[in-house]
Design a protein that fits this description.
Elements (H helix, E strand, L loop, with lengths): L1 H11 L4 E5 L3 H7 L5 E4 L3 H4 L11 H12 L6 E5 L9 H15 L3 E5 L5 H9 L4 E6 L18 H17 L3 E5 L3 H10 L4 E4 L7 E4 L1 H4 L16 H18 L13 H8 L1
Parallel strand pairs: 1-2, 1-8, 2-3, 3-4, 4-5, 5-6, 6-7, 7-8
Helix pairs in contact: 4-5, 5-6, 6-7
């Protein structure tokens, strides 16, 4: 884990951290050239499997996608989410599943949602040489539906809770923390007092780094959270491509002469004989 800390510290001397999610080898290959951290997030339950929550993601799903992404990652730090139900119930369960993910995916670190309530679990993983990225603020695993996502840090009580969570995961040994869906003022404060890199998602540009779900960035969905900036509208481009293919098939222009295999006459005769 010290290697990861040193690597991130070195980057932060010059620029913020760039982080995105991946769930397949092809996306991973592209991200590897630009991202400091690539996360196999349990958001894949929503963007790949069409669920309205991350809570239906299984350990095997994360391992399978993690193995695929690992094949495309050569330079970036690869982090994998531990899904709900695989770590928060007991330290022994967390350690067992963390070791399984690490062994089967060869990832660099694991991400756990939660603050002070899971500090003992973080400590045990770190003691067993499993680097941990924490996730505080909005924690999707604790929310039954995406429709109930909200901005946190608008009350004194909420602010105190998030600051307490930050200090707890710091002390437990996390090498960085994702801060999700909080007010900009609170995000700035968290980044100011944090002793570990703070990676924002719906937080503040002053965070040490930023992360988004790649499918959101690419514009594959009609709706996205306010904090998402769509850098492309792939949904529209894919739709246009499929329409063109549809018309070509209907009109008989696909496959064309360049899309079929031909034999020379002599080869055809020899084959038939």
């Amino acid at each position: 884990m010290e290697e990861i800390k040193f690597h991130l510290k070195k980057i932060l001397k010059n620029r913020p951290l760039v982080c995105l999610t991946a769930n397949n080898i092809y996306t991973a290959e592209i991200l590897d050239d630009y991202c400091d951290i690539v996360l196999v997030g349990d958001s894949l339950g929503m963007v790949v499997y069409g669920e309205n929550t991350t809570n239906k993601v299984s350990l095997d799903m994360m391992i399978n996608h993690g193995r695929a992404v690992r094949k495309g990652i050569k330079k970036s730090i690869l982090v994998i989410d531990m899904p709900k139900g695989t770590y928060e119930k007991s330290p022994l369960l967390a350690l067992k599943n963390a070791k399984k993910i690490k062994k089967l995916t060869n990832c660099d670190a694991l991400k756990l949602e939660g603050g002070s309530e899971i500090s003992k679990i973080i400590k045990i993983l770190v003691r067993n040489k499993i680097p941990v990225m924490s996730h505080i603020g909005l924690q999707p695993q604790k929310i039954p539906s995406k429709k109930k996502f909200k901005v946190l840090g608008k009350s004194d009580r909420g602010v105190r809770k998030i600051i307490k969570d930050l200090k707890s995961v710091e002390k437990a040994g996390s090498f960085s923390v994702v801060l999700e869906s909080v007010t900009e003022n609170l995000a700035n404060k968290i980044n100011e007092i944090s002793e570990i890199p703070v990676i924002g998602i719906g937080a503040s540009k002053k965070c040490d780094g930023q992360i988004l779900v790649t499918e959101d960035l690419l514009g594959l969905f009609n709706r996205s959270p306010k904090f998402v900036k769509k850098y492309e509208n792939l949904r529209n481009k894919i739709t246009k491509a499929v329409k063109r293919y549809y018309k070509d098939v209907i009109n008989g222009t696909f496959p064309g002469k360049n899309n079929v295999y031909k034999w020379r006459y002599s080869e055809k005769i020899n084959y038939l004989n």
